[in-house]
Amino acid sequence: MQESSRLRLFLPPGTFPTCVLRCDYNLSVAGPQISVLIASDRVADSLPECLASLTAQLAAPPFEVIVASSSEPAPVPKASFALRWVEALDRNPARRRNRAAGEAKAALLAFLDDDAAAEPGWIAAGSSALTRFGIAGGPDLGPSGAPYRERVSDLLLATPWIGSGVPAHERKPRAGAVRSPHDVALCNLFVRRDVFESLGGFDESFGYIGEDTDFVRRALERGVAVGLDPAVRVRHRRRRFPGAYLSQRFRYRVKTGRLLIERPGLYARGRIAAFLACGFLATGGAALFGARFVIPAAAAYALITWILSFPIWRRDLLLFPAVPFAFALHHATYLAGLLVGLARGLGSTVTAR
Hints:
Blueprint: E1 7-10, H1 17-29, E2 34-39, H2 47-54, E3 63-69, E4 82-87, H3 93-103, E5 108-112, E6 116-118, H4 122-129, E7 135-137, E8 140-141, H5 148-158, E9 176-177, E10 188-192, H6 193-198, H7 211-221, E11 226-228, E12 234-236, H8 243-262, H9 269-289, H10 291-308, H11 310-313, H12 323-352
Parallel strand pairs: 2-3, 2-5, 3-4, 7-11, 8-12
Antiparallel strand pairs: 1-4, 5-10, 6-12, 7-10, 9-11
Helix pairs in contact: 5-12, 8-12, 9-10, 10-12
């Protein structure tokens, strides 16, 4: 069954019909310079805060906002931008973003998650970054004043080397050209429209998870300049630790494990192999030597996690006692997810043969 599509234009409350003609005329003559595209599942819960952050943009060029979702968003009070809705019943995020991009009027596209809030200089910084890069991302930081369990999750994502492994989740990522397709994240990504169209948009066959890494990988293979700019900042809600966070991380790593088999070259296999090797060594050491291995290994592990996460917990001392236990669950979940995903990937490959 073909999915229906509807567009709707929202104007700020209190505008008169005569203003509609003037606004339409301005859009058709000059047009927005940036289209902000949001694929939303949380239209009533998170999206209003996301849209409110766009009303507070400073020194931003003219922009429009397009929301692709199954239900209609509410008008935004005091909005200085046109808000359009694309009805998209399919929850596939890549398909929703592609459809929103297809309706965009601007030469620059900005992708934002509905549970993220753009900082006031976000659009200005993103448009500036696209003068140097074809694709540009930036940090997605945890919101200030978040609940404790979300702050634990943010610490796990933001710690270099032993956290998520995604520089965009870190507090102070290295600026400049990215080294890996997963260095930037789709919750905070600016793309030149000509680049987006030349790549054919996002691969909708990925479904949920992996479509952004694949998109950046294809761009890098074609010689597109992809950069990370610390000035392009959003505040992104975290899943609460442990339940919601670990459940999400498990799903992510299962998908990663499958894609390692089904889509070779998408992820850096060296890092994943090193992580798996550490997991196997720790498991083997515990099985062979028991407490003689476990006690000193656990003490060394706790010390390493405290040292590497120090820049984060030193500003939030309540996090300190949770650090080693949270990382232990985080890494165990990663290991289990990867193993399940690898098994499923190998199983699907054997079945296909």
